[in-house]
Amino acid sequence: MKIPVLEIFGPTIQGEGMVIGQKTMFVRTAGCDYSCSWCDSKFTWDGSEKEKIRLMEPDEIWQELNEQTAGNFAHVTISGGNPALLSGLGAFVDLLHENKINIALETQGSRWQPWFASIDELTLSPKPPSSGMKTNFSILDDIIAKLQEKQKGSCSLKIVIFDLADLAYAKEVHFRYPDVPLFLQVGNDDIENVDDDGLLRYLLNRYDWLVDQVMDSQELVNVRVLPQLHTYLWGNKRGV
Ligand SMILES: C[S@@+](CC[C@H](N)C(=O)[O-])C[C@H]1O[C@@H](n2cnc3c(N)ncnc32)[C@H](O)[C@@H]1O
Ligand SMILES: Nc1nc2[nH]cc(C(=O)O)c2c(=O)[nH]1
Ligand code: SF4
Ligand SMILES: [Mg+2]
Asked: Per UniProt, where does S-adenosyl-L-methionine bind (predicted)?
């Protein structure tokens, strides 16, 4: 089954969440069922790059990963858009595993796919109020229950934080799923900025703010607070 692909890039470091720092390749699929106000990958769903979408078979993606890197990779992160819209990714996941590649997935937790059970590091990133999206908690409950039952790898929750309402949402999520590792990530509300030094100073301040907020919270005790590391290194550049 063909997969709509918008970007294949790397090797780079995973800049976010549970495998931050991991050397990885990225495969970014097209299409999303959400439209977050601050999405840093709007081109995957706003139609602006629809002529760049390539419909690829799993073995074609595998071939391109190898061509781009001459075999210099052992880990692939699948992101989007929402890759969970694509049942056809199961065959790609199997192909990577046959070739001894570990796999991470980025998704918002709005859809289940049976192939989630095979992902090595699965990040669920439900969206806080600042995004303008509303979480369907019965779907998220179901996904987390299925993962706890079936997944061979590990999963985590990652919530992007812009303001105090987002922090309140993170507390709610943490209370609901106390056994799932929770990562809080600095939100970047300056996604058009091309002044990397200015952006770095700004995002460091936002990280400082977020750390302070979490340190002061009795409800957010067992959590990890992270920057979106790639933006601190390379700003808003695409494909890194
Ligand atoms: C572009 S999304 C694609 C995967 C999936 N749709 C999702 O949202 O989890 C990848 C990650 O980037 C995060 N993200 C998107 N825009 C961001 C921003 N402006 N600042 C910080 N993180 C952002 C999302 O919350 C998500 O965790
Ligand atoms: N380096 C790097 N790390 C990332 N972690 C999650 C990303 C994403 O857009 O899903 C991302 C990305 O685009 N680049
Ligand atoms: S769910 Fe992910 S890809 Fe979709 S709009 Fe939100 S941040 Fe962007
Ligand atoms: Mg990104």
From this structure: 38-40, 81, 125-127
